[in-house]
């Protein structure tokens, strides 16, 4: 049985509102994390206001048009028409929200230091409208200590105090774009709070929207949970990426090795190599811990080495491409046209955040080649922080005739809807970073694994 909590007026009122679903929720940042979360909260019975600085997103949402694959437009329309969801750029409306959830980006600087400018700016915006009886939650991935040392400190500059006037918590996002088995409401939710009352409010609020809630002892612990999950994946992917290069030199197929190894029913979990890491989490989050660890004069050599290996993969792949063009086609990469298949960082989604495909295109053109792309989910390259020079390029139509005009096709993302039989029979040379052709039984001398 949970021990009784010391009562406060602010806590009692907010707890009652959450329990009766009369609390109004606000979600700041309506991207891959924020929009699915907002809809899940609305479905559970709360009235939700979504906030974003991008007016184009608000226009799309008001037109009942979802731009996130995991949120269907029909589902969006149902919550809007039911009066449970609306979206705005007017942050003054935060004052009416009882629970405010921050889902903004936490990228890295050019020097791989944490860029918390979005979190800080958002916290200051909340502070302008902060009142007693609110719960403020951070979901953005970050290093341990951010919620208490940055978000809470900014909010307390108003004169209100966390734990008595308002409450602060952290719950790491666990979205997985394209996952057909789990969605926001069915993925277990780790929650933490600044004090026992904050944790109780977090447990009650998220427990209304998701199937399983996992309380932990502190906000820093919850922040560390998210980093640990992504570091685990980063390190293991780096391992198989390194094994790929070693086994290739030995004439051994790393994918065959992994497929055989995973038949062991204990002590092994399969991870697969690729052209580099993509998405917001794995390429970025581990470096938040390496940065924070410097404060304690502790090295994170394992994590940093994994980052170096994964970051080197696009250059390795382009090297294999150049080698294959030279040996098999007698042509230099500098005089070649290359079609990159898949711009998204993973298959069957439109998410290009940190996608290695962008880096592959850049490296090909740095070496004098011409790089185009085809992606059934990404019609045009949008504005990005690091690849502004690629903005506006459009997806090429994928036909036999188109394929025949390229010196090589580089498979970076193995979308299911691509016709690999046609690609195999039409392309002069194929560089396969995903082992998709072998998986489909399409083996030929002009298909090279990389």
Automatic annotation (TrEMBL):
This is Nucleotide sugar dehydrogenase. The keyword NAD applies. Keywords: NAD, Oxidoreductase, Plasmid. InterPro entries: 6-PGluconate_DH-like_C_sf, NAD(P)-bd_dom_sf, UDP-Glc/GDP-Man, UDP-Glc/GDP-Man_DH_C, UDP-Glc/GDP-Man_DH_C_sf, UDP-Glc/GDP-Man_DH_dimer, UDP-Glc/GDP-Man_DH_N, UDP_ManNAc/GlcNAc_DH. Pfam families: UDPG_MGDP_dh, UDPG_MGDP_dh_C, UDPG_MGDP_dh_N. Belongs to the UDP-glucose/GDP-mannose dehydrogenase family. Gene3D superfamilies: NAD(P)-binding Rossmann-like Domain. GO terms for molecular function: NAD binding; oxidoreductase activity, acting on the CH-CH group of donors, NAD or NADP as acceptor; oxidoreductase activity, acting on the CH-OH group of donors, NAD or NADP as acceptor. The keyword Protease does not apply. It comes from the Bacteria. One of its GO terms (biological process) is polysaccharide biosynthetic process. Residues 339-439 form the UDP-glucose/GDP-mannose dehydrogenase C-terminal domain.
């Amino acid at each position: 049985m949970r021990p009784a909590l010391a009562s406060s007026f602010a806590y009692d009122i907010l707890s009652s509102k959450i329990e009766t679903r009369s609390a109004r929720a606000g979600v700041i940042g309506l991207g891959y994390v924020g929009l699915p979360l907002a809809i899940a909260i609305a479905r559970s019975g709360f009235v939700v206001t979504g906030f974003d600085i991008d007016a184009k997103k608000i226009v799309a949402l008001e037109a009942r048009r979802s731009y996130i694959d995991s949120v269907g437009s029909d589902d969006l329309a149902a919550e809007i028409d039911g009066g449970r969801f609306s979206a705005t750029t007017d942050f003054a409306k935060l004052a009416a929200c009882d629970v405010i959830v921050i889902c903004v980006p936490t990228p890295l600087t050019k020097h791989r230091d944490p860029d918390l400018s979005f979190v800080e700016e958002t916290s200051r915006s909340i502070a302008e409208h902060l009142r007693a009886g609110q719960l403020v939650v951070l979901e953005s991935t970050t290093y341990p200590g951010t919620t208490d040392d940055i978000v809470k400190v900014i909010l307390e500059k108003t004169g209100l105090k966390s734990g008595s006037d308002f409450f602060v918590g952290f719950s790491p996002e666990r979205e997985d774009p394209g996952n057909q088995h789990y969605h926001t409401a069915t993925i277990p939710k780790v929650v933490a709070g600044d004090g026992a009352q904050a944790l109780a409010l977090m447990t009650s609020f998220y427990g209304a929207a998701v199937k399983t809630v996992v309380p932990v002892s502190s906000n820093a612990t919850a922040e560390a949970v998210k980093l640990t999950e992504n570091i685990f994946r980063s390190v293991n992917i780096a391992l198989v990426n390194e094994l790929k290069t070693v086994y290739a030199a030995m004439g051994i197929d790393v994918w065959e090795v992994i497929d055989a190894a995973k038949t062991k029913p204990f002590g092994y979990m399969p991870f697969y190599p690729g052209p580099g890491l993509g998405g917001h989490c794995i390429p970025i989050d581990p470096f938040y811990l390496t940065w924070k660890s410097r404060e304690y004069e502790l090295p994170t050599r394992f994590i940093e080495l994994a980052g170096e290996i994964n970051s080197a993969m696009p250059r390795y792949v382009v090297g294999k491409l150049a080698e294959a063009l030279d040996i098999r086609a007698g042509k230099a990469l500098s005089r070649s046209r290359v079609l990159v298949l898949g711009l998204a960082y993973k298959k069957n989604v439109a998410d290009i955040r940190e996608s290695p495909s962008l880096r592959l295109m850049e490296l090909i053109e740095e070496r004098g080649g011409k790089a185009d792309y085809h992606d059934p989910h990404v019609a045009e390259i949008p504005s990005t922080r690091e690849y502004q020079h690629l903005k506006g390029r459009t997806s090429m139509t994928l036909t036999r005739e188109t394929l025949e005009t390229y010196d090589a096709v580089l498979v970076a993302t193995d979308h299911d809807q691509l016709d690999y039989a046609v690609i195999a029979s039409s392309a002069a040379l194929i560089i396969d970073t995903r082992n998709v052709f072998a998986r489909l039984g399409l083996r030929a001398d002009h298909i090279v694994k990389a």
